[in-house]
Amino acid sequence: ALPISVVKIKDISYDAGYLLEMLVVSPKFRGMKLIQQHRLMNKILSDELSILHGITFKCMTPEQYEKTDEK
What we know:
Helix content: 25-40%
Structural class: alpha+beta
Distance between the termini: 24 Å
Number of helices: 3
Order of helices and strands: EEHHEH
Strand content: 25-35%
Largest sheet: 3 strands, mixed
């Protein structure tokens, strides 16, 4: 299981299909490269991703999230 602090999902499809932007904040991302974070999210959501046109992940640690204006 992935311990998650924050999840925000935004529809960015502009009526063109299922296109989402997902912000995920988790301490599990500490020490992981960006590609590793995205691969983890793809693995966790593999079944759900099959119905989407596309998804963009923004993966952050809690510390990174606190320094952004994403809140």
